């Protein structure tokens, strides 16, 4: 900013939590910033930050819907959780789901982006169709796939049988249900990766590709040495968003498999939901949710080392 | 024009993609026109439609089971929450984009991180809060938490749009005697209108499908939203009437179909809020 910068010290300047504001204009009173930011911050403090702390407090009590008032039990819930095989089962399922969903979606999404980059005539129609799943209500996605995969009359099994193969027991067997969940998640969310990578691909300057062609680079070399590195920021971004959202996802499981059979699709989200909503064991559910937050915080801190998030921070 | 074989294969693949992509939706639509018994008997379902049956199924879903009411509830709740989120999120985004103050980066990152918050971590406290002020089972009981859910997204989308506007425009208006608030209202808002549309669309989308908080807050059918209503319709009765379930699916897809027509132009901006440019 330009001349006349003046330091306006707020009354709480000694408290490090209260920022000291620096304004470039005399006619810009300190009140302006509170007026602009205040409502938003206040709202988030009341309806996001406070519930998070409340959740933390709950996780240190034995509150259930039956007892009404919970007693402070310290870290008992966390201790119980660490030796609970059901918790570890859910953690394992979450890890499997996040890893394979994201891996498959990244590969397919990039492949789709490259394919649509051929700019075939009429491809915008197909692109529109492919984007639909991502906008759909996850519960309905689950129900829709239960119909498609129905062992008796579902369309998918009919198609598999009509080419002479034996369809697997998609949602009925412990071994297959997680695979099915991952496949359905990929059906819904590959478009997300696709559209982000495709947008990046469109924005790339064509000069490098022409130069590569002049230098005699084949398509494979061009892809590995030029296209892929230039797409990397978009791929990493899509991967981070997808990983977090797959980790949080709960409604799809609710609609598709309800965590079963035999807890084979019970992820941490669903495990916490079952404890909280079904068994009304609020304290334990909150502890599970807090373990999720811990994992998320660690995971995103690690990942954000590789992604720049602030738009314009590089200006 | 010479026909290249590679191009032909690509077109065949494109058509294949289109068919595979549309098939689940078409299948759902066909199932929704059948009698319960026909779904079990016709594999794959035939394409002869009995319009009386279609009418009966959709009448059942929309009116007897209340999907039309659920849709209206969703529109009211999501519409109100999004409007308020844009109203309080836009000034905040403007402040983050233009004003320099300490911890602004950290504050902005904290707000973005809230977009990643698992709803499961706040659903119970939000429910207890809403219950404490007697708002369970009301529109307001959902609108209040939903504003908080879409607010981070709105702020981030708007920061991106404000960052694109040269600061010289602000400076000029400030020199002409405009206040900061005046600049935002009279100068910036007309320029960032596409940003407001994007923020509203994606803020709305983010909460349109919300399920968990609604499950806690809403008890009576009168206030159920689409996702909650659909969930109770397809899981409460066992075994499921698949023709009815399919019609429920079609009814939920229609608003999304309309939405996707509007959203195409903005989709990249909306999805990549917070991304490096």
Task: Label this structure with key terms.
heterodimer; A: 315 residues; mainly alpha; MetI-like fold; 66% helix; 2% strand; disordered C terminus; B: mainly alpha; 2 domains; 76% helix; globular
What does this protein structure show overall?
The complex is a heterodimer of chains A (315) and B (277). Chain A has 315 residues and is mostly helical. Chain A has a domain at 85-304: MetI-like (MetI-like fold, Orthogonal Bundle). Chain A has helices at residues 30-59, 76-82, 85-116, 123-135, 138-148, 155-162, 174-203, 207-214, 219-248, 251-256, 268-278, 282-304; strands spanning 6-8, 21-23. Chain A has a two-stranded antiparallel sheet with strand order 1-2. By secondary structure, chain B is mostly helical. Chain B contains 14 helices and no strands. Classes of the chains: A mainly alpha (315), B mainly alpha (277). The interface between A and B is large, with 95 and 107 residues.
Number of E strands of chain A: 2
Q: Could you name the CATH homologous superfamily of the largest domain in chain B? A: MetI-like
Principal-axis shape of chain B? globular
Largest sheet of chain A: 2 strands, antiparallel
Order of helices and strands of chain B: HHHHHHHHHHHHHH
Structure classification of chain B = mainly alpha
Helix content of chain A: 55-70%
Spatial separation of the terminal alpha carbons of chain A: 14 Å
What's the count of strands of chain B? 0
CATH level 1 class label of the largest domain in chain B: Mainly Alpha
Mean of the pLDDT scores of chain B? 85
Structural class of chain A: mainly alpha
Radius of gyration of chain A: 25 Å
| Overall number of structural domains of chain B | 2
**CATH fold call of the domain at 85-304 in chain A:** MetI-like fold
Number of helical segments with 4 or more residues of chain A: 12
Distance between the termini of chain B: 39 Å
What's the name of the CATH homologous superfamily of the domain at 85-304 in chain A? MetI-like
Architecture of the largest domain in chain B in CATH? Orthogonal Bundle
> Helix coverage percent of residues of chain B?
over 70%
